[in-house]
Amino acid sequence: MSHADALSPLIHAPGAGAMLDPTPLVRSGRNWTAWFGPVISFAILAVVFVQIGSFDFHKLIAMLPRTPLFWLVFAVTYSLTPLCDWVIFNRLWSIPTGGLSALFRKRISNELLLGYVGDVYFYAWARRHVTMAGSPFGAVKDSAILSGVMGNVVTLAMLLFTLPLLSSLRLAMDGRALGISLTILVVTSFGPILFSRKVFSLPWPERRMVAAVHLARIIANVLLYATLWHLLLPDVALSWWFMLSTLRLVLSRLPMVPNKDVLFAGVAVFLVGRELEIAQVLAVIASLLLAAHLLVGLILGLSGLVKQRRQA
């Protein structure tokens, strides 16, 4: 389940906006935005130093391709979420290009620390660096909810095409768990839409823009992962990788289905064959993403502490 899906029951609850909006802390004089950035920088560095010691960079380097096209596609894939977030908040707040570093730190915090810590960090950054009317909390909250909603909508649409295939594979998918998963997807997809006046803070034209950007990001992510896998194993037709990338999205967003990585690996081997090569491709991408998180987290953590020291 995505972070947005996990948070949505809290956000949709009566009075949730008042409960989750940290603006009263600022108004009461306890301006936590001044120290939250350095805390996040320290936390990122701590996680990086803990994980970097056990990471096998030599093994990863030996498995990586040498083609520039692979690295270009990987860079776009890795940067896609912060770039799309920048498009959204640039349209909403006219944030400068320098805001990209805050959005990369937002992603790193969500991935390496705890879900939605990055969103809280970005809220704190926005309060200190962006001039706007009112609180930025509503926009950050709405973007997170719409990201989850669009992900669920795309998953439901793709499930119509992939469910016959998944059923024919006779994999270890419990029918009751699958039914509950589909129910959760439907509720979390259409619940915010039905109660949009109570859930969302942004006006309809801005919500439509945010939803469109998230939809484009999700579709682009499916295509980019398929391209990365194809570049690692070019003997397999790109169309098969598109199918697998679609299945990966579907499986990743079914909340009650256990062992999703194992299940996806089983689907990939069944469709493509070549078990060892498939396992290596999936391992390379997973290891490369973690290595990128550690490297970017190290750079952003150090740069954040240096900037705070200069401002002190």
TrEMBL record:
The keyword Transmembrane helix applies. Keywords: Membrane, Transmembrane, Transmembrane helix. The chain crosses the membrane at residues 35-57, 69-89, 144-166, 178-195, 215-233, 278-306. This is Flippase-like domain-containing protein. It comes from Sphingobium indicum BiD32.
